[in-house]
Specification:
eight-stranded antiparallel β-sheet, two-stranded antiparallel sheet, alpha+beta
């Protein structure tokens, strides 16, 4: 999200970022040509291309392109349309190279140890340092695509309320958004493999990602002392020239950006089309509003949850998705559920009925009825995980992206 001229108050704006793979139109193998695309548009190798209300950016690796709002958008309503238009424009520009964009949280057969190409232009010194420290050829670095949402706050009180709400909702978000069940050409055993690899990719410096679910910190001073100062201290021996910024280093599932007055949620796998991404973001924002306003449970109850207890639920959801049985009755009670245990799917069904009272969010209701994208992909493949079957599946997903349509079980021929 671009820098804001002033800090916005809670829910006054939304910064959205969506990452996509560039692949060959012939065999869907990754193509590291994002820099060539940007030069085609601007005449030079740049890190950002501005397209009115949206912008395109490079990422760590050259086969990924990020499309994002150029500053905070006033509303999420209808925001999928400009994203879709930019996707179609990029696909038109890539077509002469027999290339296109591909959705999904991870490429299903990419070999990152052979195919990773680090972005070689602007900011390359940062990326190369990351590569020297962590070896960015792994799946958790070079093969993961997500949707991020930046939510604004102004001052410690608003930060505390927003951070508390995000922390308690975070563990079940992947049950709705997982789209990465396949790595190395086979089922990984995790519904959200992107998050499973992501949480391990910086284990050399554990303070960088923590438990992915952020700690119980509700002021900027607390956050700086317990997260930023620890990260800076732990990275100093690797980053002797002070190149790496604390905001970029922090890899929790939701990161506080005090420099821009926002919290960025990073655990959402990219969906099959912008309409699905925006629909998911709309329901997440609606629920965060309910939590911030204390209509579901009190602020003090939200603050009381330790990251270890939330992380235990998060890890179960990352592995089992919407089928994960949440057995912590106190957690369910946060959302007004009286059951002692319920699946993540039942939890989302309950939450969406509260957040979407007019039943306008048909996409999220379809996700709940048919499963997250990972679960729909697995169901579609059935017993066949051959390369031909995976190729056919991802060709359909590419069609969903180009046409801004959902991938549903009825899609199967």
């Amino acid at each position: 999200m671009a820098e804001q001229k002033r800090n916005l108050h809670l829910f006054e704006g939304f910064g959205v970022e969506m990452e996509y793979m560039i692949v060959s139109g012939k065999d869907l193998n990754v193509l590291p040509i994002a820099d060539k695309l940007f030069k085609q548009v601007t005449g030079e190798f740049v890190a950002d291309v501005y397209r009115g209300p949206l912008a395109w950016s490079n990422e760590l690796v050259s086969h990924v392109i990020e499309i994002k709002t150029n500053g905070p958008a006033a509303t999420l309503n209808g925001l999928d349309k400009p994203f879709h238009e930019n996707i179609q424009e990029i696909n038109r520009l890539l077509a002469p190279s027999d290339a296109m964009l591909l959705p999904g949280g991870a490429h299903p057969w990419m070999d990152p140890f052979k195919e990773t190409v680090i972005w070689p232009h602007e900011n390359n010194d940062i990326y190369e340092l990351y590569n020297r420290i962590f070896d960015c050829r792994g799946h958790g670095w070079s093969n993961l695509q997500s949707t991020h949402i930046n939510l604004p706050f102004q001052g410690d009180e608003e930060f505390a309320r927003l951070h508390a709400a995000i922390r308690v909702l975070l563990p079940i978000i992947p049950a709705l958004t997982a789209s990465s069940p396949i790595l190395d050409g086979k089922l990984s055993g995790f519904v959200d493999t992107r998050l499973e690899t992501y949480r391990h990719n910086q284990e050399k410096v554990p303070s960088i990602a923590g438990k992915v679910v952020p700690e119980q910190l509700f002021t900027q001073a607390e956050y700086d002392k317990q997260i930023f100062q620890r990260i800076r201290g732990d990275i100093n021996s690797y980053d002797t020239d002070g190149i790496l910024d604390q905001y970029f280093l922090n890899s929790r599932g939701a990161i506080a950006r005090f420099d821009r007055g926002a919290i960025e949620i990073r655990i959402i796998d990219i969906q099959e089309c912008p309409a699905a991404d925006i629909a998911v973001l709309q329901v997440i924002v609606a629920l965060l509003k309910e939590l911030v306003n204390e209509t579901l449970c009190s602020f003090e109850e939200q603050k009381s949850w330790h990251e270890d207890d939330l992380a235990a639920i998060f890890l179960g959801v990352v592995k089992e998705g919407s089928n994960y049985a949440i057995s912590n009755g106190q957690y369910l009670k946060l959302f007004g559920m009286e059951q002692k245990a319920a699946t993540a799917a039942k939890c989302w069904e309950h939450l969406v009925n509260m957040a979407d009272k007019d039943q306008s969010n048909a996409i999220v209701r379809a996700i709940i009825a048919q499963g997250n994208l990972s679960e729909r992909m697995i169901k579609h493949l059935g017993e066949s995980f051959s390369h031909e079957a995976l190729l056919g599946l991802y060709e359909e997903l590419a069609g969903c992206l180009e046409n801004n349509t959902m991938f549903l079980s009825s899609t199967k021929r």
